[in-house]
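Title: [Solved] LysR family transcriptional regulator 3D structure

Original question kept below for reference.
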Amino acid sequence: MEPHETHADLEAPRALPALDPRSILIFREVGRTGSLTGAAQVLGWTQPAVSQHVRRLEAAAGVPLLAREGRGVVVTDAGRALLRHADALAAALQDAEHELADHAHLRAGRVRIASFPSASATIAARAVSDLAERFPGIDLRLEQLEPPEALRALEEGACDIAIVFEYDDGHVSVPVDADRTRLAVDPLQIILPPGHPLTARAEIRLDDLADEQWVTGCISCRRHLLTSTSAAGFTPDIRHSTDDYVVVQALVATRMAVAVLPSLAVRASRNPDVTVHPLADHAPRRVSAITRRSARSVPSVGAALAAIQRAAHALNAP
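Solution (posted by the thread starter after getting help):
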């Protein structure tokens, strides 16, 4: 044992430098052509440059990869072992190039969209159909979630795009690493049963409905209604609660209550037995698409966001 050697030094093999993938691919050309000169011609390099890469690879491997034979070279047993891995490396890189090209040209990729119910039935449904027709190779997933759950899914990486709404009295909390794309304004509308005395009015305000029985929607919509009616000077007599806008209209149609619904909910499913009226002097809710900044550069996500914007524009068009 040398003076400064320990038992650990004798037992543990010394770590070799990492093999350079580029040098491995260059060595592969030497093996394919049978010479350093041939590899240089294929690569468009000089012969000394190829030799330098092979020497660097041999130093990292710790064994000779080529042996001189006359004016040429032959591949050693260690070199042939490396060539098998070099072929696998070249094949894997080629597969990666093809797969990345598929993503870049939208022949592949995955997009997960989370959206609240009425936007799912209108904006998201149109966008998914549009995207599937334009880029059939993209794996599309749509999940119906209310805004708080959709934003939580976005933060956790469980979706790529969250379509959400917000009222003036309650802003959604967008993650710090996300961007907001405005999609639409969604006016609120009064839903009345047929023959109701107010149906003849040119303008209906919330305080005109102070004595009515009400049916309310989701938690955010109920909270907004209570805030708005408080500002109008009354507390609504809420008899029914459901986040299903089909049920809301059914209850109104049977004269059990009146309701306020966003325009998207009425457009998604209109009950012919109710009347729909604009709500005067009331701010609409706003609909947005929220995406993580890191995801916007992904081609499939960018294409999906563009499709969502087209769908929203088509709905907003006169």
